[in-house]
C-alpha cells in the first residue's frame, strides 16, 4: 500500500516536471524503496529517475534493482557513470550482475574496472554456480594475532567503509584462518590488548565448494553475521554476509516449493517470466505424470467387466484417489521439510516409518468410520442411492484404510530414499506420490471388491 | 555426519567417566553444537552433561536447546543455577522460554528474576503471540542527539555486553525514535562529532502490533542487522535482531508448506511430535476433502448409465483428475509463493489470470497432442484395447484441454481471492484445488462424451 502511494507521488511529480521537489524526496528514500520505484517505472523514465538520485544512493539502489532494469540502465550509462557505479558496488554484487548480463555488457563492465578488481571478479566467476565461492565477497577485514586492539581500530577505520562488514574481523597467519574477533570484543578490550589473546580460535567456516544452502544454514544455525569461506588449505578467500544468506534461504525455499508442486524451478519472479518460459517450466512434469497415469488406466481396463457389473463402485474412485493422494502428500511434504531443515536425517528412517504407520492406522480408521456413516446415511438414505449396500460401503472403507496406509508409507519413505541415493527429496512430493498411490489403491479397491462382492 | 561423531565421542567419554577430558572438549565447542549434543542425550545425562560446561557456555547453549529439554534442565536446577541462567539469557529468549513452560516452572522462573526484569518480562508477555512486540527484546543501545561520538563509545563500552546488538544504535528524544547510527558511522567519525549530525533520520521501523512475518520481511528487504519496534506514538520499545528474523522466515516457510499440503501447522519438529498430535494436525483436512469428494461421486452417479454403456471411459478418469490437479496445483503454488514473497499483489489479478490463460492453452494443447498419440498408438495398437476409437481419444483429449484450462484459472485466482478477503492464500493449494477441479473436469468429461459419442 505504502509502496503504491510513494510510486504515485514520485511519478506525479516527474510528469509535472517538478524536478527540484522530486530530487529532494528521492534523496530521503531508502535504496530498497528507490529500487522498487525504478523497477515499476517504464522504459525511458528509468534512466531519467536514476539520474536524479544523489550519487551514493544511486549506486546503493542499483544493487537492489532487478537484472532486467539493470541492463537497461547500463545501456543508457556513459562509461563514466558505469565506472562510478561499478566502483561503489560490492564485489559479490558485481559478480551477480555480470552473471546475469549479456556478453556485450559484460565486456563493457570489465573494461571499466581497474585491473585488480577485474582479476578478483574473474577469480569469483570461476567458482561453480551455487557454491560458497560464487556467493562470497573478498571484502572482509583481516587482522594479525600480534596486532593490538588500537592498531586494529586504526586499520578498521582506514578500510572499513569499503568492506562488506567490519563487525566480524578475521585473524590470519600466512593467509590461514586462525581466529575471529567481533567488534564487541574489540570495543570491550583495552587498547593494549593483543588480538591473539581475545580472538576466538573455534572458527565456524565453510569451504569454497560447499553448496550455498550449506553456507546459509550454517550461518543461521550459529547465529552469525558473516561466515568465512576457506579453501582446501584453510586459507580464507572470502566471506558471506547474513543479508546474502537470507536471500539464499528464501530462494531455496521457493525452489523446494516449486519442486514439490511439480514445477521446474526458476529464479525469476512470476510476473517477469514470459508465457513460453512458464510453460516450459511446467510441462515436463505434467507430461511425465500424465503418461505415468497409463498404469492406473491399465488397472481399470483390467477390471472393466467387473466394473460394468457393479458400476456403483466407479463413483468412489475419485474420493479414494484424492484421499490417498492427500494422505501421502501430507507425509511426504512433512518429511521433505524435515530433511531440508535438518530435523530429520537418514538414520531416522525407521522411526519415521514406524510413526507414519501408527498415524496412518488412526487416520485410516477415523476416515473409514466417517465415510461408512456418510455412505449409509447420506448416499443411501438421503440421496436414495440403493446401489450402495453395506457390503459396497465396507469395500470402499476397507480400501480407504489400505490406501491411506500405503500412501503414508510411500509418502514418508520415498523422500528419504531419494536423499539416500543423492536425489533432491523435494521431487518426491504430492504429485509424484499421488501417481503411485493411485495405481496401488485402485488395485487394492478391485481386489477387495472382487473377494467381498464376488463380482 | 560431523554431529554424529561429535555426539558419539562425547557420550563415549561420558560413559567411561573421563570427566576431565570431556570437560575440556565441551569447553571448546560452539553453543549450538553443545545444544545439539544435549538434545540427543537421554534423561539424566542431560543435566550431568550440562553441569560439565563452563558457566557462560552453559547459558549460551541453554538458549539453543529445545523446550522439552529446557524443562527437564530447569526441573533439575537448583534455584541458584536457575538464577544464573536466567540472568544471562537475553530477555526475548526468557520470554520464549516462559511461553513454552508449564505454570509451575514459570512461577519458579519469575521468582528467580529481579523485579525490574520481571516487570519487563510481563510487559513483553502482554503482546499478542506472533506480533512484533512478542518477538522483540528491550536490550538495545540508545543514544541522544546531543551526545558526541566519544560519549557514545563510552556508553557502548559500558553497556554493550548485555545488549543484543551494539552495531546499530538508536537515537531517541523523549523516548521517541528520531534516528539510527551504525557502529561503522561511529568508527569513521571523529570523537567530537555530535550524533545528531551523523545519524540517519530515515529510520525503517515496525509497530508492536505488526505481524512477525512483516518484521522479518522488512528487515530482509532493507538488509538490516536489527529493526526497531515502535509503539503508537513512535516511541522505541524494543528491537528484533536478524538471527530471530531468520528463524521467523524459516517458521513461516514451514507453515506455508504445511498448509499447502493440507496439514494444520505446528511449530514442533517432526520427530518430537507425538503420533496423536501428528494425527490431529492431519485429519481435519483429510476429512473435509474426503467429504467434499461427495460431489465428484454424485456427478459419476448421475452419469452411471452412460458409463455402463461405455466403460472404456472409466479408465481415463484417474489420468484426467491427476493432470487437472497437477496443472491447478502448479498455478496455485506459484501464485501463493509470489504473494508471500511480495512479488505479486492484489492489483496484479488480471495480468495473472491473462498469463495463466495463455499458459493453460499451450499446456493443454501439448498434453492433448501427446495423449492422443499415446492413446491411438500405445493403448489401441500396442496394448490392443480396441474400445479406444478416435472418437473416444478425441473426447479424452478435449476434456484434458478443458480440465487444464479450468484448473489453471481456478488455481491462480483462488489464492488471490483468499488474500483479498483476508484468508491465508496457502490454504488454496493443490489438495483444495484438486477437489474442485476434479468435479468440474468430470462434469466436462461426461458432457463432452455425451455430445460426441452420442451415449
Protein architecture, described:
Two copies of one chain form a homodimer. Chain A is mainly α. The first copy, chain A, has three domains: 2-126, MgtE N-terminal domain-like (MgtE N-terminal fold); 142-250, CBS-domain (Roll), CATH 3.10.580.10; 293-453, SLC41 divalent cation transporters, integral membrane domain (Tetracycline Repressor, domain 2). Helix content of chain A is 66%, strand content 6%. Chain A has a three-stranded mixed β-sheet. A three-stranded mixed β-sheet of chain A has the order 4-5-6. In chain A, a hairpin with a 2-residue loop joins β2 (168-173) and β3. Chain A starts with a helix and ends with a helix. The model of chain A has no long low-confidence stretch (mean pLDDT 89). Chains A and B meet through α12, α13, α16, α17 and α18 of A and α12, α13, α16, α17 and α18 of B.
Shape of chain A: elongated
State the CATH topology of the largest domain in chain A. Tetracycline Repressor, domain 2
CATH class of the largest domain in chain A: Mainly Alpha
Q: What sequence of helices (H) and strands (E) makes up the elements of chain A?
A: HHHHHHHHHHHEHEEHHEHEEHHHHHHHH
Helix/strand/pairing class of chain A, anyone? Answer: mainly alpha
Largest contact between chains = A-B, 115 and 115 residues
How much beta of chain A, percentage-wise? Answer: 5-15%
Secondary structure: number of strands of chain A? 6
- Find the CATH superfamily of the largest domain in chain A: SLC41 divalent cation transporters, integral membrane domain
Largest pleated sheet of chain A: 3 strands, mixed
What quaternary form is this? Answer: homodimer
Which spans of chain A of ≥5 residues are poorly predicted at pLDDT below 50?
none
